[in-house]
Amino acid sequence: MHAIATRRGSFLGSSMRRWLSGKPPRILITGGLGQLGTELAQCLRSKYGNDNVILSDNKEAESGTSGSGPFIRCDVTDFDYLDGVVKNEGIDWLVHFATLLSAIGEKKVDEAIRVNIGGFHNVLNLTRKYNLRLFCPSTIGAFGPSTPRIDTPDLTIQRPNTIYGVSKVHVELLGEYYHQHPEYQVDFRCARFPGILSGNTLPGGGTTDYAVHIFYEAIKRGRYTCYLRPDTRLPMMYIDDCIRGTVEMLHAPSDQLKMRTYNMAAFSFTPDQLVKELQKYVPHLKVDYVIDPVRQKIADSWPESLNDSNATRDWGWKHDYDLAKTTRTMYDIIMRNIDKDK
Ligand code: AKB
Q1: Ligand 1 centroid – CA 52 distance (Å)
Q2: Is this model's pTM higher than 0.90 or not?
């Protein structure tokens, strides 16, 4: 049995102690070598100091990938090891990114259950044990074919038909349960992300990945084969908005969060619309479509657009990038990166 501290317990959490002493929070990011971890670490390190933000992942960081601060190799399915990291490093805030995404989850169902569900149980129990603040994203994957697809609200039908979606609904509900439980009162915070577009980091195993891969193929080869139908409309966001929103939600005073799971939206587009926008920079780009039935079925079960008015009302969420600005920025960054590699 692990000794679990409660918010009603007789001692203050380390987070509260550090806050009262004016010290910056100590932050651990799991799944840190994925699409979002290094960019979030960079942003948090510039606020709180390099050493206060620890990136972790179950694989070793190749040189240069973990940025300017500490990296710890750590598997979220190993409770005791993770417990040691949280305790020895004096962690106050935990950002939990470790997960298998939607498409890879369908290929590796058992592993997705172990990592996405088992890993989250470990993280949540440590959050409770050490009185941490926990941010764990959910996504459009938490919705399913019976969800209203346009302007999807926060509270609606959630019957996803992927293991990824099932695990995200589990995250949302268990996190909220631990938050409202009178003895646990865990500071759980969850934003539902759309597909994320990033120029410096690559996504892996998702259904929305095409929207990043197309830039590389367009610039390098002038050709791309898309696995989704040209009219598949999905909600998307540029990574800078995603990182800023995550930091804003992490910072929001707890009593301002009237809910614990919020939609976060920016803009929506189809592959066809993205191709037309990208052709402004790569006019010779040719795209053909060879549909992957697994990823198409997943995409068809997700919303086309999200309603994020509660996030705007409660913690001031507002996106900055639209499709045109995202495309221009992605194109510039990827061109620069490709030139550097030459
Ligand atoms: C995926 O495609 O699986 C992710 C997501 C939308 O959650 N990018």
Answers
A1: 29
A2: yes
